[in-house]
Every structure is written in structure tokens, then in C-alpha cells.
Amino acid sequence: MPDIPQQPTPEVPKPSNLGEVPTIHTYKSDVAEYIKKEGKTLADIAVAESQRTTNTLQTNIDNPERSRKAVLIISAVAIFLTLSFLILWLAFGRKEDDSNVGYTGTATSKAMFVSDVTEKRISIGSSEKNAAIEKLTTGLKQNEQFLVIYTDKEEKDGVKTPLTSREFLERIDVYPPDDLVRSLKNDFALGSIAGKARFLILKTGYYGGASSGMLRWEKTMENDLRDILGLSIPQNSLPPQSSTTQSFRYGFADLVIDNRDARVLRDASGNTILMYIFTDNETILITGNVNASRIVPTKLIEN
């Protein structure tokens, strides 16, 4: 009968101590253990930490190339972030600059004159230059003490909306210099005093552009506005025994009216043909009548 191999006796696991709680290490306990083991004090640890920081700083000083690279990297990152912010601001956050762009929206959005004036709206529909000027000049001839006319256009659906200053100038076939046009706000008004002395009010958002544009416009302003403002015909002085050819040239000159700087155009006989005044940095008054140049500013609402 074969021998049966003897089975090994299984080991009985030792009972674990279920009640034993593992040791929890904290920074405070580790420091205490380190002090006890190394025989150090808290002051020794503080001195060692200070010495380590000093050594790190000294290493950076001793290695200027590394410091220079770090400064260059930080500067490059700062410049990149600044440029990114600037690009985003220009693309999305920048408001329209009144000095370089024309205004959009509703014209005559706020009152320009005091309450004791007669105001009237005239629609020129889709009229061309001559018809539009005829409608406006007919309205300006009304014998009102102080008349202000606002101009409307007619949309395709029949709705009347105010003309902007640029639309008005285009409708009467007048094209001032670009720097003036770009500076103009939507608001403008035509007017007359006692049905005779006519004037034009333009509003600007950029005095510098408007001022330079007005100076450049002087070359053609008289002819451009003759019909709408009813300007006088210049009286040309002719020398004896001459032909009918004009013998002189005239232009705008500086003038002060009621402590306001003005530019005035006179003919050879000294008669006023046209003048313009900045009544303030946002308002341009154009007229062919000296009395109007004094009365109109008293009726304007101060900005």
C-alpha cells in the first residue's frame, strides 16, 4: 500500500490588533521630532531657512545671464498680454470717435434753440436739388420773428424721418471738405429772421476738424450756399474805361462779432456777402446777414 504524503500544517494568522490607531504625522509633530532627534531649536531652524533664501538670491546675482533671461521672458509675456488687450479693445470695446466719423441715427435729436422761437418741419420727400431748395426757401420766406426749419425726408414706406446734416448737404448738391463732413453731427437747422435774414446751423463733434474744414470750404462756400441762404450778389468795382471783366479778387477775412471770432466775406464795396462763426466748440453759424450773426447766438441753447 503506497505511502500517503503528509499534508503541511496550515499557519494560523496572528490576530491583528484592531484597536491600534495609526500614527498621524503633522508639521508640528515632525518639527518636534526633528528637534528632539537632532538636538536643534526653533531658532536654529529659522536661521537655516534664512541662510537658504540668501544663498538662492546670491545664486541669481552670481548668474546674471539667467536673471536677464527671466526678465526678458517676463517682459515678453507682459507685452504680449498688453497687445492682446489693446487689439480686443480696438475690435470690440472702443466707442466711435466723434472726431473722425459721421454720426448715425436720428437727426435733431435734442433741442438747439430756446422755447420762444417758431419751429416748423418741411418735408422735401425725394426731391432733387432745385425742387428741394425751392421748398425750403419758400418756407424760409414766412414772416416770422424768428423761424427755425427742420427738414424731413420720405422713406419708401411713406414714413417721414429727419434728414441728417450730411444728407441735407447732399440733397442740395453741396460737398464741403471731408474733414468738415466727418466732424458733423446729425443735428442741423435752417432759419430766418422776419422772413429775410437766413442762417444755417451745423453741429460738430470735433472742433479741430470742423475749423480746418471751414477754412478750406471758403473757396466755394459762397457759390454752394448762395441759393439756400439768399446771398447778395457781390458788387464789383470796375476801373474807368475798363471792360466788364472783374478787376479784383476778394476773400474771407477775420472779424470779431460780440467777442466771437468770425470769418467774413465782403465784396469790393465792403458789403457783407457771407460769414461764419463758431458760437461754441460744437456749433457753426453760417449767414449772410450781420444782424443775424448777433441775434442767432442769443437764441441757441448753450452746450
What key attributes describe this structure?
single chain, 303 residues, nine-stranded mixed beta sheet, 9 helices, elongated
List the helices and strands and how they pair.
Blueprint: H1 27-38, H2 42-62, H3 64-93, E1 118-123, H4 129-140, E2 147-154, E3 160-162, H5 165-171, H6 178-183, E4 184-193, E5 197-204, H7 207-217, H8 221-229, E6 252-257, E7 260-266, E8 272-280, E9 283-287, H9 290-299
Parallel strand pairs: 1-2
Antiparallel strand pairs: 2-3, 2-4, 4-5, 5-9, 6-7, 7-8, 8-9
**Number of alpha- plus pi-helical segments:** 9
Backbone shape: elongated
**Helix content estimate:** 25-40%
Structural class of the helices, strands and pairings? alpha+beta
Distance between the termini: 128 Å
Number of domains: 2
Low-confidence stretches: 94-109, 237-249
The sequence of SSEs as H and E is HHHEHEEHHEEHHEEEEH
- Cα Rg: 43 Å
Mean pLDDT: 78
- Largest sheet composition: 9 strands, mixed
- The fraction of residues assigned to DSSP E strands is 15-25%
